[in-house]
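[job 0412] stage=fold_complex status=start
inputs:
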Amino acid sequence: MKIHEYQAKEIFADYEIPVSDEILCHSVEEVEKAAEKLGLPVVVKAQVLAGGRGKAGGVKLAKTKEELVNAANQILGMDIKGYTVEKVLTAKAISFTDEFYVGLTIDRNSKSVVFMASSEGGVEIEEVAKENPDAIHKFIIDAEIGLMPFQARQIAFKLFNDIKLVRQGADLFEKLYRLFIDTDASLAEINPLVITADGNLMALDGKMNFDDNALFRQPEVLEMREPTEDEKTEIEAKEKGLTFIKLDGNIGCMVNGAGLAMATMDIIKIYGGEPANFLDIGGSSNPQKVIDAMNLLLADQNVKAVMINIFGGITRCDDVAKGIISALDQMDVKIPIVVRLSGTNAAEGLEILKKTNLVTVASMGEAAEKAIEMASQTV
Amino acid sequence: MSILINSDTRLIVQGITGRDGSFHAQKMKEYGTNVVGGVSPGKGGQKVGDIPVFNTVEEAVKATKANATIIFVPPAFSADAIYEASQAGIELVIAITEGVPTLDMVELMPYLKKNGTKLIGPNCPGLVTPGEALAGILPGNIFKKGNIGLMSRSGTLTYEMVNQLTTNGLGQSTCVGIGGDPVAGLYYEELLEMFENDPQTEAIVLIGEIGGDAEERAAKYIQEKVTKPVVAFIAGQTAPPGKRMGHAGAIISSGSGTAAEKIKAFEEAGVPVAKKPTEIPVLIKERLGM
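[job 0412] stage=fold_complex status=done
writing structure:
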């Protein structure tokens, strides 16, 4: 789960990490009021759940009232990677002498939390990682002892020469680690962390992502969730035990298991088709899931054919077949459906489907070919 | 021979009185797995079928000499169940549960290392040594005893691959589903080492997916340390960036973790990559000169 910059900085402030004075605004009038309160110059920053907003023109410095109104007008309502900007953060402009990157994430290889720090702040860290990987210092944190003060100092000495800044930095890094653990984060990033003109550290931008698996024990984090339209469909699906991701093609897919669902999308593409979605109905034998899944697929007007690919394990093919039958009974399905059933109770499942006019095939390759052929014939 | 489990494995089931735990305990027993007991706090003394239930793992180990456990407890309590098994001296823990918080796993790892406990999963389908033991939720009837070792990050895709192998006359030594979570127990490198040292295994199938760089690391390991033929498959070759494809691990972020990078790494390591599941048996037969 992702949150906005202003939300991340609220969490930072709760942990006494210094952030700039800033006010969240939803209109040009609010931006003007905020600037009056903060005093010019200010920075107006788009709040969207997508990266690269700086490049898209979503961050602007305003020194005068005129620049302020222009900036607010340009940024509010702007489209950044498919997201419409509905709110902006108006922040007091800070003059600084140097900028850095610090961030915490989970490292799959060491199976640990890792602290990353770099003197090349203010730019996208992924680019630094590609072009100058040695500029990023990585510190693996031992889960048994957490981030100890000595390790926080080690990191700080990589970035700062002045002992006063080393002490400030070490203290800030410990706070960042604590909030990462406390909130079940998967990413906590300050970029840039700056040395202000008066010689102190401040977080000028913040980014946090959270572990979806841990949201059940993070009610305060969950409250910050702001799903987009596509995500709303995905969350709705999740509540029904389905994993759904909308794509742009015309072949609706219903598969059990994430890996097989990905392989199904791949095989449709190999045979020259385009999948309309990723849909994993998971490992269960509840026919209701099949009905829910069918509803999701058919809600997409682009879908011209449906490919059902089931390899039974926990999921029993006869239950899936029953689900398909009751879905067809309840819904007016006009588009062709290809079904491939293998594994647990496949023979029983295919027997049930004999009563229908659905196309059944033996392999996923055949299913893909058939679905593509039928989609091309559907108006 | 085989790896990790065989007919000597003495398995207990943590969460045996739950819906999935009781169902799969019986299924595993039907397959021939030596299921010696189950654990469910407060249900000690009961039986599931003819399998005795204990209150704690410690009691179960004392009474049954169990050396492996399979975990079906809900996500919020999974880490605790794994600690309990490790503390009781269980050597191999298989965690089936999906949705375990990542930081729970991060905190757990040093303890397992200290105790020498091997973990498979979480969020995995388990493993099978065909004809000897099945510890997981995999459909037993698709497997066949033989010489191919298989490891996979996915569940049902594993079944698809095993089905391809079996119907083409290629049996398996052991098949391991390592799970789809970002932080998991045994991974490709450890399993490659085990298969390399297992006399029964003649060739290895590695089924990866997008996200992370575990496949790239595996490719490097194969190039340096593995003498047996390896063939691979990568799921998610057409997945769009930034979308999490079901598994917590399966996401392409910032241009890394793509299928193209993984395929390139394997090909550079001399590992052929199948485009479709049906190509896997063909590639193996080629590599084995069959």
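[job 0412] summary: The mean pLDDT of chain A is 92.
[job 0412] exit 0
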